[in-house]
Amino acid sequence: MSLVNLRVNGVTYPVDIEMGRNLSGVLRSEVGLTGTKEGCDDCECGACMVLLDGQPINSCSYLAAQAADREITTVEGLANGDEMHPLQRNILAAGGVQCGFCTPGMLMSADALLDRNPDPSDEEIKIGLSGNLCRCTGYARIIQAVRATAVELNVSP
Predict the structure, then answer these.
(1) Which has fewest Cβ within 10 Å: 49, 58, 108, 130?
(2) How confident is the model at residue 66 (pLDDT cuts 50, 70, 90)?
(3) Per-residue DSSP letter, 83
(4) Count of beta carbons in the 10 Å neighbourhood of residue 130
(5) With bands split at pLDDT 50, 70 and 90, how would you rate the model's confidence at 157?
(6) Which of helix, strand or coil describes residue 11?
(7) What is the dihedral of CA 5, 27, 131, 42, to 10 degrees?
(8) What pTM did the predictor assign?
């Protein structure tokens, strides 16, 4: 066992973990944030996507110890208190959620995409979400939600 500090959504969690544990499991079990899903444990589905220092990673294959003292953002960190992030609100409004299992990973990939490129084309959105599999929606409404969020975030107040 090894004590590491995981900085998740702006809060530091001292966590005693066994070496070799993946980040998704530690986030869910030791930190108690279950929004990050465990789908394939093989970097195939993207359900476990989190941001590490702003970059999307598959937390199922990333060692928790490697994330020590780095900034981890999970889907729980997108909302501002009780106010949903525009991506969360728009994916619901567009009907881009069916079973919902892929949604946390989709949201994290979309957030990273919009941070890198605030006005992506539909093709760039598809590429930005390419690490996330969805078996229910057909992606069209998810792409629509990301596009709506880009427009919303780029409108000057």
Answers:
(1) 130
(2) very high
(3) B
(4) 10
(5) low
(6) strand
(7) 100
(8) 0.94
Q: Which residues pair with 83 in a beta bridge?
A: 80
* Residue position matching structure tokens 């629509």: 144
Name all domains of the chain by residue range, CATH numbers in brackets.
Answer: 2-77 (3.10.20.30), 86-154 (1.10.150.120)
Q: List strand residue ranges (DSSP E) for 18-135, in order.
A: 49-52, 55-58, 71-73
Residue 132's identity, in one-letter code, is N
Q: Distance between CA 51 and CA 57 in Å, rounded?
A: 6
Token output for 130: 């390419």
